[in-house]
Amino acid sequence: MDPTFKNVYLNVLVTACPSCHMMGAVVGSVDVTSMEPAYTAMIDEVATAMQPGQCMGKGKLIVPGDCEKSLLYNKLSQATPVCGRRMPLSSMTTPQSSLDLLCAWIKAGAKNN
What's the mean pLDDT in 95-111? Predict the structure, then answer.
């Protein structure tokens, strides 16, 4: 699968995130219910969730070119992320193929394509 934002959105974000990350759901979190606002809110943006123990000021959600420094990738791929809790909060884990797609897109510059 091509590492495009459209594929990341449809195969990673839409499958695991909208139940919590929608307009007005989690204070300060990214709304992923539509593609364009989700992209704009994540690229080079510092995490701002205000919930106790979350990632406010702990890094950027997506760091183009570096999936290891991208909080989104970290929170989806690590059992114990650098801040907050592993995502998604349900017992579901993100499939390796989805993580690979996300990382490939980030490494390719995280373009809005």
Answer: 96
* pTM check: above 0.90: no
Amino acid at 78: Q
**How do residues 76-89 score in pLDDT, each as one tens digit?**
999 899 988 888 77
Residue 19 has pLDDT above 90, yes or no: no
- From 82, 98, 107, 75, select the one nearest 14 (Cα to Cα): 98
For the chain, report the end-to-end CA distance as a whole number of angstroms.
Answer: 13
Give the CA dihedral 91, 97, 83, 66, nearest 10 degrees: -170
Contact present, 101 and 7 (Cβ < 8 Å):
yes
The predicted pLDDT at position 86 comes to 85
